[in-house]
Amino acid sequence: MPVRIHDAPLAPVAAELRATDRDVVRYVDDCCDRIDEAQPELHALVPEPSRRERLREAAAALRDETPADARPRLYGVPVGVKDIIHVDRLPTRAGSALPPELFAGPEATCVTRLREAGALVAGKTVTTEFAGGGPGLTRNPHALDHTPGGSSSGSAAGVAAGLFPLAIGTQTGGSVVRPAAYCGVVGMKPSLGRIPRDGILERSSSLDHVGMFTQDVAGMRLAAAVLCDDWAAGEEPVGEFPVVAVPGGTFLQRAGPAARTAFAAQRRRLAAAGCEVRRVAVPALEEVTGLARDHRRLHYGELALVHEPWFDDYRSFYRTPNAEAIAAGRDVTVGQLAASRARITQLRETFDDLLATHDADLWVTPAAPGPAPATIRTTGDPVMNRPWTYAGVPVVTVPAGQTPEGLPLGLQLAGPYMRDERLLKWAEVVADAL
Questions:
Q1: How many structural domains are present in the chain?
Q2: pLDDT tens-place string over residues 312-321
Q3: Do 212 and 138 fall into the same domain?
Q4: Of 108, 249, 309, 390, which is least surrounded by CB within 10 A?
Q5: Where is the Amidase domain (predicted)?
């Protein structure tokens, strides 16, 4: 059975809180009521006994200190923050049994930007251990026996259930795009480095991205304007409909039958709406084994470097997937790391050059190999996401229908590097078409 789903689209919620007399303390109370109702089954948030009191205090201070005619863009909006991201007054546990004092540090710039825009931290959202292996207790709000995806499990599930209109996550393989698809919300992984990564417990310095979850594309544009460096929403004009590129070859065979069937229907709907759909051969995507190997070497090698200060002393505290990844990462050589890092630029240029050569605006693929698996012991397969993460290009996933059983499906859109503004504008067109 699903939990109760609440509508909480960021753009209209933020507009209402900014422009009306709706009391922000009362709105925070409403959100806390939703959290209290859903949390026993959903487990989207890290437990916090005094959450309501903390939020009411912060909301009252915001209300009393902010003139009605000077309310910032996210005034009074509660935000979920993945528990590898430092937030003042809240410990960072990273889904781990290690002492949280090991990870203490100053508040992340992305959190500070949210506060400066008027947002309130609803709490820390559940993550898999160290944003990798080892799922937490979070469940999919559409079907509680199914995974919400990971590693940004609580962020996706909390936004999908409407506990808060915005959440922050991270992606090293597919940890924003895939859970957004599984939970039926909008997810965005901007271009690598577009959102500052200081104050975040690192997993892979070359691959980690900060990303966001909302229920609406318009809300994602609002969040991106607050969080991304040098956002220029008005400087990326687009036409009425995009030209979309579909990878040729065997890459799409990595998706399961349900995802491929849905993807064919999604392409037809895009074409019927006015989008031109072009099949584009991508030889780099045919090298799936080599690409996955290079991504894994870079990922695990850099993970081992991050955990070098703690791993030997606390190895028994680590769950098996991360312990094995770190052990494997210690065997990665400096030369292998350098070669895997060099492939980032090669892959990025390949994707961008192919779009330009074929006069296409963006790539479209299934956001995951299928709907959310019927388990909470794993978080699904990032195979559809990994190449775009490796390349560091911007990616947005939008809801794209459901299975007959009512499980959400998502469509993954990837654009040229550092053209995030343009990709989000196209995402709104695509979302409307679907």
A1: 3
A2: 999 999 999 9
A3: yes
A4: 309
A5: 28-424
Question: Is 191 among the catalytic positions?
Answer: no
pLDDT at 342: 96
What's the rounded Cα separation, in Å, for the pair 312 and 320? 14
> Which listed residue (96, 151, 155, 204) is catalytic?
151
Domain span at 387: 243-285+338-392+409-433
Q: Are residues 276 and 382 in the same domain?
A: yes
Q: Which two tokens stand for residue 422?
A: 């343009």
Same domain, 429 and 343: yes
What burial letters (b/e) apply to 208-243, b meaning 16+ CB within 10 Å? Answer: bbbbbbbbbbbbbbbbbebbbeebeeeeeeeeebbb
Active site residue 82: yes
402 domain residue, yes or no: no
| Amino acid identity at 385 | N
Q: 154, 93 in Cβ contact below 8 A?
A: no
What DSSP state is assigned to residue 5? P
Distance of CA 113 to the CA centre of its chain: 18
Burial class (CB in 10 A: 0-12, 13-18, 19+), 48: middle
> Residue 198 to residues 83, 193, 421: CA-CA distances in angstroms?
14, 10, 23
Residues 110 and 67 in one domain: yes
- Residue 260's pLDDT is 96
Residue 399 domain flag:
no
In a domain, 3, yes or no: no
Across 99-123, average pLDDT: 97
Residues 137, 376: contact at Cβ < 8 Å?
yes
Bridge partner residues of 278 (DSSP)? 245
* Whether residue 113 sits in one domain with residue 100: yes
Single out the catalytic residue among 96, 175, 204, 340.
Answer: 175
Q: Is 152 a catalytic residue?
A: no
The model scores a pTM over 0.85: yes
> 95 and 66: one domain?
yes
Residue-wise pLDDT tens digits, 56-100: 999 999 999 999 999 999 999 999 999 999 999 999 999 999 999
Residue 419 predicted with pLDDT over 90: yes
- For the CA atoms of 147, 152, 156, 161, the dihedral, rounded to the nearest 10 degrees, stands at 70
Local confidence band at 288 (pLDDT 50, 70, 90 cut-offs): confident
φ/ψ (deg, to 5) at 225? -65, -30
Exposure of 312 in the CB half-sphere (CA atoms within 13 A): 4
Order of strands, sheet of 395-402, starting from the edge strand that comes earlier in the sequence: 120-125, 78-82, 166-171, 209-214, 186-189, 395-402, 408-414, 362-366, 243-247, 276-280
Residue 62 lies in a domain: yes
Let me know whether 109 and 208 are in one domain. yes
| Among candidate residues 401, 395, 20, the one with its CA nearest the CA of residue 190 | 395
